[in-house]
């Protein structure tokens, strides 16, 4: 593996450690509804940021692809983890039986495995190339058929989470409305930037 330092790696480190500090703070308040999946979301975000930082610094296609695949170890789980958090927040923890949890994470886990076979199968991503540009090189790629399956699945899960939060804002007291609005705004921001990244309008997420 070969690396070239870029200041974007510092941004990734700041994002990683600030997110982990927030997760540690959340771990001190485990009695709060939805805090455990919220911590899970933070850990996913921190891991993504760190791996993306190393991807920024990679100078070879193989190096960048390795760290991009490491991002996919956790990234497909993000919409499901947000859904778990929302379900706990609205007081419907009983919806999350072990069987339902296993079913919900099945496609994300399968995706995390499939990306490692993309050089041969190209189900998630294919036609890789190294695009040389400043301030760092990026991976050129096309999306495979499985990508659109998991992308659509993530959109569906995010959509359900948003609808549950909107319903909570309509039905519940003012305090819960503010909290639901905060979660809805956060999820909307994530979905917006994720969509821009998927459309390759932007080339990184922090």
From TrEMBL:
Spell out where the chain crosses the membrane. 6-25, 37-54, 66-89, 101-123, 143-166, 178-202
**Cross-referenced InterPro entries, in alphabetical order?**
HisKA_7TM
Q: Does the keyword Nucleotide-binding apply?
A: no
Q: Which residues form the Histidine kinase N-terminal 7TM region domain?
A: 13-202
Cite the entry's keywords alphabetically.
Membrane, Transmembrane, Transmembrane helix
Q: What is this protein called?
A: Histidine kinase N-terminal 7TM region domain-containing protein
Whose protein is this, by species? Sediminispirochaeta smaragdinae (strain DSM 11293 / JCM 15392 / SEBR 4228)
